[in-house]
Design brief:
- The complex is a heterodimer of chains A (108) and B (872).
- Helices cover 57% and strands 16% of the residues of chain A.
- By secondary structure, chain A is an alpha+beta fold.
- Chain A has a single domain (6-102), classed as Arc Repressor Mutant, subunit A (Orthogonal Bundle).
- Chain A has a two-stranded antiparallel sheet.
- In chain A, β1 and β2 (71-78) form a beta hairpin.
- By secondary structure, chain B is an alpha+beta fold.
- In chain B, the strands form three sheets. In chain B, strands 3-4-9-6-8-7 form a six-stranded mixed β-barrel. In chain B, strands 14-15-20-17-19-18 form a six-stranded mixed barrel. Chain B has a four-stranded antiparallel sheet with strand order 13-21-12-22.
- In chain B, a hairpin with a 2-residue loop joins β1 (133-142) and β2 (145-149).
- In chain B, α3 crosses α11 (405-441), α14 (504-535) runs antiparallel to α20 (741-775) and α20 runs parallel beside α23 (835-862).
- Chain B is globular, with a radius of gyration of 37 Å.
- Classes of the chains: A alpha+beta (108), B alpha+beta (872).
- At the A-B interface, α2, α3 and β2 of A face α2 and α3 of B.
């Protein structure tokens, strides 16, 4: 199991949170809200592409939509491995955080 | 006007097109559609034009993300191919080893060629102004004979300096090869005369002295560090005085840095100011050269263009200069510019300053590297196609699992590249041995290339070369392997082995061995010819003859001073040393001929014929003349006698011959033909004179038992006569051998190539035989149990290869005969091309091939048939 890069992690978290409604536009919105600044579409899709190739997300086609020139939305959903990876990533982070906090004040 | 309020706006067309191009295929649609959706809401919130700008920005910003993504997956793919390649290499150790060794050997040769070419390419490139420095070269058409020369007349400088685009002109003059001495130290030097701005054009640094003024005054000289150490071992050379030959005393005004890191066609140990020659010209010691437009054989004119000047404008002004200053009847001169970095390697010019590597040599080297690479590539192709049988299942399975043709091709090429890169490691080590080996073949090689250092700067070129070699070698097997039909190979792996439909492999073996036979035969014949020439009867006896260079010392003075020494058996004098490639010509009026003819001449004294053991065929030798100073008679060789005798050779006796500026001489004797000039060419008509003015060498026949004693006696005597000049003496046999050094070097190189070609071919054969034995081990086992003898097994195994090898031999022998016959014809005396010379190399290789097959047959015989047959 690979560790996730930060952008992959955030995108994956957003997909998990959005449940059935995760596609490019909503993911971008959610990621922007989480991080506090807008992401370009390329910054979303590069990690998304990688996540899909690694098997952390899967896709599903939605209904055709007028705003998209009559084409279908492609929805993303997190897979079981995706969830495990997120949990693993979090565990590592928690562990490191706990150790840092245990160390007490920094000595110069 | 109808409007469609409902119809959505479309995003900027070009931006959409760009996005389509760069998004990875599997997310292309969603990227496009999501962005369009966002674009629509953006347009509603702001304005269509603002939305368009926003869209553009999104697309442009996406580029680095997608580019990174592309590279990421590319690298992953390459990593995967490399991984698979490594696994396959480890799985098939013998084949991999054979491939790596064979590939490595040929790559090392390629690396050697790259190193040599890199050395060629470094010539003069260190000069930061190399692209605006030009040399003026001349085309001279004299009575219809056109020659291109690296030289140009000295007065050209003043004309060039007046041209608007020219910043600086510097002239050089050669033939400053004299002995330099300081007190009792004498060192022969090769130098150049140079204009005072020399250091402005040629970027050699002065360790000591002022570059701007070092060469301005007459009789000043700049030394290289090497020479300075020899001449002034202890003192600082600056300001000291050294005597150069008969020219006079020179003050040392500068010390040049070590020149070895700056390879240049301008090579010198010493630079003397060109104004020295002006001073000598004024005092009448040399003929006028500074105004002589016909003096275009010894001077070199270089110019530096102004920063923004075009060479074309200068080039265009050159014909005008010729018209104004250098227009002569019967002699047409043309000047043109040659850029500094195009001199070497470049076109071949006469009067080259030092050496310029001919462009043809570069191509020849590239050709050699290509041939060797082809042989190694053949090997790789051959073996991997043979392996195909084993890999049939793997390939079939990959195809079934969805690997496309291009994936498979990429994988197999990847394997070849990994093999090539592993070979590169081996090749690089081999290269470090090859370099001294090549330089050792001929000391003169060092003037063309140095091959110093560890070539780390060439490493990128080496790697590129190896990768290219891998791609080329892997290409055909990849195409072949990718063609397999999965269903067929999975059902019956043997169907992959479509040997009958794929005749190239057999062809490859034939080509490899053809080249091996050809090179080895040529090497054997060449070495035989060299050995033959070393022992050949030159028509005289050079053994024990020591040739002393007179260097202007009067013959009689030297003769008298050494006469009577018991170690000396004979003394004579000659104008040059025969059979060493030197020849002299003069125009002669021969009785019975209307036009004067250019003939070979050779000057000797009375004692020469006896001393060297030359044979008189007819007539007599020179009449004894006590003073030996009046020239009234001439001898000819047999060839001249036949040519000028008018029917009978003896008819030449009594005829008169008059050389340019001479009195008529009477032919009194005919000397048996001997090798006067060179091993190449044929024996030319030769006129043997007794012209004391032309004597250059004293030929001393030494008593072989007292050579060391006599040598020290001669050296001591020379010192008393000419303390300022080195004693220069060489044995005649050594001189003849030295003139053969070029042939030896050439055949050394050909022999090296032969060795590599044979090695690679035999490695390939080994691989093929090992494979064949493995594939047929069951069949051979059955044959054994049914009573086949070891000999039968051997014959059965070798049948497949013997026809290819025999074919290669049958093709190679006539070609070898033809090529060798062609160059042997250029020798005066040559070996006969008998079956021994033509067949021995081929038989040797065939013997080794039989041995390889025999070893494998032995292995097959020793394998217990019960074991090989059991697992089915």
């Amino acid at each position: 199991m690979h560790l996730l890069s930060r952008s992959e992690e955030i995108v994956l978290l957003a997909i998990w949170k959005l449940r059935d409604n995760a596609y490019g536009v909503t993911i971008r919105e959610e990621v922007g809200r989480l991080s506090g600044f807008p992401w370009t579409i390329g910054a979303i899709y590069a990690p998304l592409h990688r996540l899909e190739k690694k098997g952390y997300v899967k896709t599903r086609q939605g209904d055709p939509v007028r705003e998209r020139g009559g084409r279908r939305k492609i929805f993303y959903a997190i897979t079981e491995i995706g969830k495990q990876t997120l949990v693993k990533t979090r565990e590592i982070q928690d562990e490191v955080w706990a150790e840092i906090l245990k160390m007490g004040p920094e000595r110069a | 006007m109808t409007s469609f309020p409902d119809r959505p706006l479309s995003p900027p067309r070009r931006a959409a097109w760009m996005l389509d191009r760069m998004a990875p295929l599997d997310i292309r649609e969603q990227t496009r559609d999501d962005l369009e959706e966002l674009f629509q809401s953006e347009a509603k919130a702001t304005s269509p034009s603002a939305a368009g700008r926003w869209y553009w920005k999104q697309v442009l910003k996406a580029f680095p993300h997608f580019a990174g993504e592309y590279l990421y997956w590319r690298l992953m793919m390459i990593r995967n191919y490399a991984l698979i390649a490594f696994r396959n290499i480890l799985k098939q150790k013998i084949f991999s080893l054979i491939n790596i060794l064979g590939f490595g050997v040929s790559l090392s040769l390629g690396l050697l060629v790259i190193s040599i070419l890199a050395d060629f390419h470094r010539e003069d490139r260190f000069n930061p102004d190399a692209r605006r420095i030009y040399r003026v070269i001349s085309t001279v058409e004299d009575k219809g004979a056109v020659s291109e020369r690296a030289t140009a007349p000295l007065p050209l400088r003043d004309e060039l300096e007046n041209l608007p685009g020219v910043e600086r002109v510097v002239r050089l003059r050669n033939r400053l090869n004299e002995d330099a001495r300081c007190e009792d130290i004498i060192v022969p030097v090769s130098g150049l005369y140079a204009d005072k701005d020399f250091f402005d054009l040629f970027h050699f640094r002065l360790d000591k002295g002022n570059p701007a003024s070092a060469l301005s005054e007459p009789f000043t000289a700049v030394l290289t560090r090497n020479l300075a150490v020899k001449l002034f071992p202890k003192q600082d050379p600056i300001g000291r005085v050294l005597t150069i030959g008969e020219l006079g005393d020179f003050r040392v005004t500068g010390l040049v840095e070590d020149l070895s890191p700056k390879p240049s066609h301008v090579r010198f140990e010493l630079l003397a100011s060109l104004s020295t020659l002006e001073s000598l010209e004024r005092s009448g010691k040399i003929k006028p050269i500074f105004v002589d437009w016909k003096d275009f054989n010894q001077s070199y004119v270089y110019l530096k263009l102004k920063d923004n000047a075009s060479p074309e404008s200068v080039q265009a002004a050159l014909p005008g200069i010729v018209q104004r200053r250098a227009a002569f009847p019967n002699l047409r001169i043309g000047f043109s510019l040659q850029r500094l970095d195009k001199i070497s390697p470049g076109i071949v010019l006469s009067n080259e300053l030092s050496y310029a590597v001919p462009m043809a040599l570069v191509y020849v080297l590239l050709g050699i590297a290509f041939v060797i690479l082809a042989i190694a590539g053949f090997n790789y192709m051959n073996l991997s196609m043979a392996k195909a049988l084993r890999r049939g299942r793997e390939i079939g399975l990959r195809k079934v699992l969805g690997a496309g043709r291009s994936n498979l091709i990429a994988q197999f090429i990847g394997e070849a590249v990994v093999i090539a890169l592993l070979s590169l490691v081996f090749a690089f080590m081999l290269l470090q041995f090859l370099k001294p080996l090549l330089l050792g073949l001929n000391p003169e090689f060092r003037t063309f290339f140095r091959l110093e250092g560890f070539d780390l700067d060439l490493l990128p070129a080496f790697i590129l070369f190896a990768v290219l070699a891998g791609i080329i070698a892997g290409f055909f097997p990849a195409l072949y392997l990718a063609k397999f039909v999965p269903a067929a190979v999975l059902k019956d792996p043997a169907s992959a082995d479509d040997r009958k439909r794929f005749p190239i492999r057999k062809g490859l073996i034939v080509v490899q061995f053809f080249l091996s036979f050809l090179f080895l035969t040529t090497t054997i014949i060449g070495l035989r010819q060299i050995r033959f020439l070393q022992k050949v009867d030159c028509g005289f006896h050079p053994s024990g003859i020591l040739n002393v260079d007179l260097q202007g010392v009067a013959l009689n003075t030297f003769k008298q001073s050494i006469a009577g020494h018991p170690g000396i058996r004979g003394i004579s004098a000659s104008s040059f040393v025969p059979a060493t490639g030197v020849s002299w010509f003069d125009a002669a009026h021969i009785e019975g001929r209307i036009e004067p003819e250019d003939v070979s001449i050779f000057s000797i004294d009375d004692a020469y014929l006896d001393n060297l053991g030359l044979r008189l065929v007819s007539g007599r030798g020179f009449a004894a003349d006590v003073r030996g100073e009046s020239e009234i008679e001439v001898l000819v060789n047999e060839t001249a006698a036949r040519k000028y005798g008018g029917g009978t050779p003896n008819g030449v006796l009594g005829k008169t011959v008059t050389f340019e500026n001479g009195t008529p001489l009477r032919v009194v004797g005919i000397v048996g033909d001997f090798l006067s000039q060179n091993f190449n060419g044929s024996v030319e008509p030769l006129f043997i004179r007794r012209a004391p003015g032309q004597y250059r060498y004293v030929n001393i026949k030494l008593d072989p038992s007292r050579i060391p004693e006599t040598m020290s006696f001669l050296t001591a005597r020379w010192k008393t006569i000419r303390p300022g000049l080195l004693f220069r003496a060489e044995f005649h046999e050594d001189q003849i051998n030295a003139s053969l050094a070029y042939f030896k070097a050439i055949f050394g190189v050909i022999g090296g190539i032969a060795f590599l070609a044979i090695l690679i071919s035999l490695l390939g054969l080994t691989g093929m035989v090992v494979f064949e034995t493995e594939a047929r081990i069951k069949e051979l086992g059955i044959r054994r149990t049914l009573g086949a003898s070891p000999m039968d097994i051997f014959l059965s195994l070798s049948r497949k290869f013997s026809r290819s090898l025999a074919g290669a031999a049958v093709a190679a022998i006539p070609v070898a005969w033809f090529i060798n016959q062609m160059y042997l014809r250029t020798f005066v005396t040559r070996i006969k091309l008998g079956p021994g010379s033509l067949l021995s190399g081929t038989i040797l290789i065939l013997g080794i091939a039989a041995l390889i097959i025999g070893l494998q047959a032995g292995r097959a015989v020793r394998t217990n048939p019960a074991r090989s047959l059991r697992n089915e």
